[in-house]
Amino acid sequence: MYVVANIRGGGEYGPRWHQAALKANRHKAYEDFAAVAQDLFKRGITSPAHLMGAQGGSNGGLLMGNMLTQYPELFGAIVVQVPLLDMKRYNKLLAGASWMAEYGDPDTDDWSFIQGFSPYHLFDPAKAYPPVLFTTSTRDDRVHPGHARKMAARMIEAGKDVTYYENIEGGHGGAANNAQPHTCPRWPTASSGNGCPAMARKAARPPEPSASDHTAPPDPGGASFSRLGIRLTGPHR
């Protein structure tokens, strides 16, 4: 079963739908996605016990980070791709400053609501979380790989079930070429075929955040914010 959740904050139903989940109302986007999952349970279509998973990238990666930290009981596994996760510093990294109209400015009083959807700050080592796969790209020129690096390192340090993969090629698409997304496994093991990079569950720590993770190099591109890529999957009950 494959489900697409058209949550508030997306552009599917026009400007008002998008504007309904900006800044202080951002929480509505995450509540909508969780409500879709809960409705699937209510209808008897699937359940967390049947390993329902969720997947999203870029802005959808921020969504997945919030599903992971705010609604971990709803999912059997989560895939977080090229994500925004540290919302205290997102505006200092790469293209982040251009998205302050979407999320707010964390260097002002806006932090009072932004911290409520910053997965890096919401993570609690004492809580139980579903298995999670973080993917990013060293050469991402939109969302800095430091977001995924820091979050994965924090969770691995706390003993959580984490898989981390950083592609040294490609860009914000998270792949080196058009073929790789179709031939490389979505949930990798220690030995991946098809010429894909090998990865391992609870792998060695991701690269340590460097000085560049906390500074803002020039934005090399003017591409627009990528659309949400949101997936809920799970077998029929």
Write the layout of secondary structure elements.
Blueprint: E1 2-3, H1 15-19, H2 27-42, E2 53-57, H3 59-70, E3 77-81, H4 100-103, H5 111-114, H6 119-122, E4 132-137, H7 146-157, E5 162-167, H8 180-183, E6 231-233
Parallel strand pairs: 2-3, 3-4, 4-5
Antiparallel strand pairs: 1-6, 2-6
Report on the architecture of this protein.
With 237 residues, this protein is α/β, with parallel strands linked by helices. The chain has one domain: Alpha/Beta hydrolase fold, catalytic domain (Rossmann fold, 3-Layer(aba) Sandwich). It has 8 helices and 6 strands. The chain has helices at 15-19, 27-42, 59-70, 100-103, 111-114, 119-122, 146-157, 180-183, and strands at residues 2-3, 53-57, 77-81, 132-137, 162-167, 231-233. It is globular. The termini are close together.
Give a brief description.
Helix content is 26%, strand content 11%.
**In percent, how much strand structure appears in the residues?**
5-15%
Chain-averaged pLDDT: 80
Q: What is the string of helix and strand elements?
A: EHHEHEHHHEHEHE
Strand order of the largest sheet: 1-6-2-3-4-5
At the first level of CATH, the class is Alpha Beta
Helix content: 25-40%
How many domain regions?
1
Count of runs of 4 or more consecutive helical residues: 8
Total count of strands: 6
CATH architecture, please? 3-Layer(aba) Sandwich
Distance between the termini: 10 Å
* Major sheet summary line: 6 strands, mixed
CATH topology value: Rossmann fold
Overall spatial form? globular
- The radius of gyration is 17 Å
Quick one: CATH superfamily? Alpha/Beta hydrolase fold, catalytic domain
Q: Supply the helix-strand structural class.
A: alpha/beta
Which ranges are low-confidence, i.e. pLDDT below 50, for 5 or more consecutive residues?
185-204, 214-237
